[in-house]
Each structure stands twice: as C-alpha cells, then as structure tokens.
Amino acid sequence: MEEVVAASNDPDQANSFMRLFTLFQSAGLYEIAQEMHEKALALRRIYRLESSTQPKIRLLTIMGSRPEVDNSPVEYLIDQTDIELILYYFDFDNPLNTTIPDHEVAMMSLGVSPSGEPLLKYLNDVLKHWPRPILNAPSDLLKCARDQLASLFQNVSGLIVSNNRRIGRDQLIGLSFPYLIRPIDSHSGKGFETIENASMLRRYLAQQQDHEFYISDFIDYRSTDGFYRKYRIALIDKQPYLCHMAVSDHWMVHYMSAGMELSAEKRADEELAFRTFESEFSQRHRSALSMIADRLALDYVVLDCGEMPDGRLALFEADSRGWVHALDPPDIFPYKAMYMKKVFDAFRTLLISRSRSNI
Asked: Strands 313-319, 239-248: parallel, antiparallel or unpaired by DSSP?
C-alpha cells in the first residue's frame, strides 16, 4: 500500500502511471495495470530504469504498446546490474516524433504478433539507418512466427519442429482429428487445447471467438517415466543457456502450473538439468542448436523445447519474448541463482561486445 501511495504522489504524472502499472501488474491486477500503462503512454513514450550502480552501458529497447504481449521482458535480464535500460514505446501512428536519448546499443524488443508484425516490417527499413548497433533485426524476428518455424528448420538433422499452420475458423470444419489448436495471439497456454472429435471442436469454438487459429500435430515427447519435460533455453550470441526445466504429467507444460515449488523430486530433476546442461544436453543437441542459432540469426532468443524418446530435440517455439528471470524463492530453489547469473552475465557481455563494434 505504501508503494502505491508513493507512486501516486510522484510529481511526474507519466512516471506515476508507469510505476502504478508495474505495481498492479506484479499484484496480478492486469486490467487496472493496463489502464495505468495506457495513461502513461498517452503522456510520453520514453522511460528509464536506472541501474543499481554507475551505469556502464545504456540499452535502448524499442517496444510495442502492449506490455504483456508485444515485448521482451528485458528488465529481468538487467536487474541489479550496471546497465541502464531506456524503454522506448514506439508510436506507430506518430513514428519517430520524439527525441531519442543517447545510448550505446539498441535492441528490438517487439515480438511477432498480429499487432507487432506490421510494426516489425515498418521498422526493418527504419533501423537500417540507426546510429547505434541494433540487436535482433526485425527481419530476423519475423522468422519466429509460429507458422514459419517448421519450414525454416526443414531437414535439420536431430530436430523435430511443431508444424503450426494458420487456418481460418470456417476451415476447421472437416479437418481430420486429432490436432492441437490455439488462437493466433495467445500466450501462456491460453486457448491451447487438443481437439479429438467434432463435439470437442464445437465446444472449443463456442468458447473462442477468434477468426483464425494455429493448428499443429501432437508431438509426444514424454520421457520413459511418463513425464513431460520442457526446457526453456536462451540463445545469447548464439550460445545456449538453460533458464528453467519444468516437469509435468500433462503435455502442455508451463513452469507456473507444473507445481515445481510443491515437489522436491521435480526440483531435484531441474537442478540436475542445470548442473549437467553444458556437458550433456547441449552436447547431445549441439548440431541442432547450432543450426537453430544460425538460421534465426538473432542476438537473443528464447527456445521452448523438449527431448524425444528417440533422442531428437523437439522445438515448440522460438520467441524473444520468453520470460527469463531469477524471481523464484531462493529458499525453495537455492540452486537457480548461480545458473541464472550465467545467463545475465552472458547478456551483459553481448551488450558490451556490440556497443564496442560501433567504436
């Protein structure tokens, strides 16, 4: 409550709205958080997150206006570091109508979404003339569209990729079952279900009003013990870093719903995955991960993947917007901090390296 009062009393009204947005969002009050965010952007489009120490580098992130859907949550990668983060919420209706603060390196933080795709295409030409080095070129980010990945990685040895196809609502009638379905602009498993028969499809469409969907074949990546294990891996400067591994008895694995905090066995499994990642997992899939990094050509991207019983890497999603953080309670997840520090250090090294390329 004290933090809300302090934010409300901030003499900078735009900053006040942005601080309230952050507080309400962290409390799960998404509707009022979105309202605060819209009010903040109506006043200005640039905000700063100052570093905890004397800043060594200033990172400008170019973002879309929807905080929960459009953008990479970069703030979690640079928390408690010597990096100053400048958030630039690009205004598509009034492009480049504001003075851009000086910075050493910029990053395209917008992801592929129905609202983000036209902006990425527009910015692809604009950013070719940017005065500072740019991470994640828009043309490369566009490769992350769910229905592009299977063709992009066709014939990569040791890799199977979710074959998402974009399809209209009316075209769903008459398709062969079963298949997986999700709305085009959904995230975190919202509206992501298995359709096994006509009655399930009718029930699903009654709940979803979208006009287009992604459908894909089911990939059975269960381990021999019957559990599904989903790995979140960050490719930073093309090198893989494990960010988490979730274990579930359901094929749709999300860290928040997998009950990792409730199971010592699952946490021991994840700790082992962290400890052996460089010597085992990344070595087993070295060729596939290298091909993914080369074909995406992104400086920073997050992969969600699993391991098939036959040893192949299963790639479900490649997206720069994947949440990478160190917010898990250290008393429950004491092993994670040291491994996440490697991730954050790698990101910092990337920024410094790219900034020096402009000297």
From this structure: unpaired
